[in-house]
Design a protein that fits this description.
Radius of gyration: 19 Å
Shape: elongated
Structural class: mainly alpha
Helix content: over 70%
Order of helices and strands: HHHHHHHHHHHH
Low-confidence stretches: none
Number of strands: 0
Largest sheet: none
Mean pLDDT: 80
Length: 259
């Protein structure tokens, strides 16, 4: 049973990856936009780092998580789009007639999205190093950033897949994913929490899980191994993953029951 599940997951993940590679324009724009954010924000806002609240931190290291998280959101959204395409072209219905595990039908596109995200994050970090990025915690700090990006992407992929299975419509699924982009800007996107002046924005940043992803990444990039600051990001990811993956699983069950 277990071996059959993982075999099904592998085959469907491989198919999703091959499908993505055949349509490079489905992921290249998102990657270019994330890199654009990194270059423009660092060039135009780096002077903010001279403020006392930054304590001499490199603004490139401060802004890099914004580019990584935006790539995670855009890249993981491909999981939902892949499911919608399979529904619209009839492949999803044919899959339901095979012995393939129902769980693998959902996990395949999600894992493919995570693989795409892993490559995108590596490219963004590489561009960062070309621009002069220095990581306080070295190689293992880069691994932590990758894990945080993949974890956050997994949370978003679950939501994206759930919306796709609920709506079975490409436009509706794409519109549903827009909810995550405001989370980037209702956070400590450009300045530390201490420099946010609007009280409502401070409240939004406090309850926003993206804030804790940013802070965890910035801790390993700028400050070092501060356990609790890093752990908060993984805790936030765990909570959101539980919610979104459960949403995807329930949506998949209903989609299968409807045939």
């Amino acid at each position: 049973m277990g071996n059959g599940l993982w075999k099904d997951v592998w085959l469907l993940t491989k198919r999703s990856i091959v499908t993505t590679l055949r349509s490079p324009f489905s992921f290249i724009p998102n990657l270019l936009i994330s890199m654009f954010f990194l270059v423009v924000y660092d060039s135009g806002l780096s002077g903010i780092a001279e403020l006392p609240a930054f304590e001499g931190a490199n603004y490139l290291a401060f802004i890099l998580p914004v580019s990584v998280v935006s790539a995670a959101i855009g890249g993981a959204g491909g999981a939902g789009q892949g499911i919608v395409k399979d529904i619209e072209n009839g492949f999803f219905s044919r899959l339901l007639l095979t012995p393939a595990s129902r769980l693998s039908i959902v996990l395949g596109p999600i894992i493919a999205g995570m693989t795409q995200l892993f490559v995108q994050t590596l490219l963004i970090i590489s561009i960062g190093f070309v621009m002069g990025l220095k990581v306080e915690t070295g190689f293992f700090g880069v691994l932590v950033v990758l894990l945080l990006a993949i974890g956050w992407g997994l949370a978003f992929a679950g939501y994206s897949a759930g919306v796709a299975l609920r709506t079975k419509n490409a436009q509706a699924a794409q519109a549903g994913t827009l909810i995550f982009f405001p989370l980037i800007f209702l956070s400590t996107t450009f300045v530390p929490y201490e420099l946010i002046e609007a009280s409502w924005l401070k409240v939004a940043a406090t309850i926003n899980p993206t804030t804790y992803i940013f802070e965890s990444m910035r801790t390993v990039l700028i400050e070092g191994w501060i356990f609790w600051d890093i752990a908060q990001g993984f805790i936030a990811i765990g909570i959101v993953c539980f919610i979104t993956i459960t949403f995807a699983a329930v949506s998949a069950k209903k989609a299968v029951s409807r045939g």
